[in-house]
Structure formats: C-alpha cells, structure tokens
Predict the 3D structure of the following.
Amino acid sequence: FFKQKTAYELSLGLVGSEMCIRDRKKERVEHGPPIDRLLSGEVGWLVFRGGSLSVEGIVPNGLLPGSFSPLHQGHRGLVVAAGKLLGAEVGYELSVTNVDKPDLEESELWKRMSQFENDETVVLTRAETFFKKARMFPSRTFVVGWDTAIRLVAPRYYGGDTSEMMVALAEMLAAGNRFLVAGREDQSVFKTLADVSVPGGFEGLFGDITEDQFRENISSTQIRYMQND
C-alpha cells in the first residue's frame, strides 16, 4: 500500500523535497499569527517577553492578573513584593476576554503590551475567571488585591450557588494553586486578608502580603480619571 501511494504522489509531478516545502507552507498558513490563534481560541495562551511572542511558552510560577490600562507603579511594586515572598519570578497575566466587556482587539493588546519592559513577562490568555486561569495554570500562585479576594469567596460570583463556589475552591486547592492577597484601601480603611471571609478548610489557599511588605493606594481607575480630568 505504501509503495502504491508513493507512486501515485510522484505521478502528480511532485518530488519528495517539493512535497515537504509545500507542507511547511501550508502549515504556516493554517496556523497564522500567534495573536490570531489566541483570539480564535486555537491556543490557550501566549507568552510575551523581550518584544516577542511564544505560543504556550513557559509561564512564571507567580502571576499578577489585570487589565493594565494603564500599567502603573503599584503593579510593579506588587510584582516585586510577591516575587520576594515566593522566591520566584512573578509575571503579568492579561486576559483578552472579560466577563462584562467586549474582547480586546489586537491593536489594543499591542498598546498594552508596549508598556512592559524587555525583562518583564506577560502571559496573554482567554481566561476571564480565576477558575479558568487555575485550570490552565495549575500549581501557580496568583497575586491579587483584597477587593479581588473577597469576590473569590462570595457565592454571588458563582451564580449565587455556594456549593459551586466550594467545588471551585476545592479544585484550585487540589491543583496546587494559591492566592497571595495584598491589602487595599476601602473607604479610608486599609483592608487585608484578615477582612476576607475565607470558608473553613480553605485557609491554605490564601497567603498574606502584609502592609509593610507592600502598600500602594493608586489604581488604574484613578489614573484614567486623572488623565481624563
């Protein structure tokens, strides 16, 4: 059978090397640019570092998710503080999808990525929820603020279903994921992990970044407001 197939292919006027070249060209066309492949859902994530993109490349042990619109000193300070606590690199994670907003377009993605330095790592995903992020990146630690941590343990963010929340937390814990929680100012009160109502049995899912390790009151929302004022 193999010999018959080879004879048939050669009868089309293609020698072996020409067939390989055409196959490689076809493969490149089918795959397309990395960002197109991410936006279409063909690949799970992209890693941006040093001005270049790699498809499903190595992801840092720690990730700071955010929209980074814009990136500011608080983000960088938090990455440094978390890196010291983890003893590992902490990168940034930017999802092109959002629960209540349109998907980011390629031009906007490049605009946001242009803010990062060559030695900073940005992971682009389509994971708009932490449950999806955790499934994609087991054993990773996510760096979050107090305001995000309270949503992680609030049933209303799981469709009001407490059992669904508990299952999600249990899966993330079993997968080796952790959350490092930094304090945030809320109505002139600095709130920390101690102010998060963590369900019993899930205390090990969360770690604290203390106020003396990191505190930055500015936010991207405040910066955008000042820029538009």
User: Anything to note?
Assistant: Residues 1-15, 17-21, 25-29 have pLDDT under 50 and may be disordered. The longest strand covers residues 90-95. The two ends are 74 Å apart (CA to CA). The chain has nine helices and ten strands.
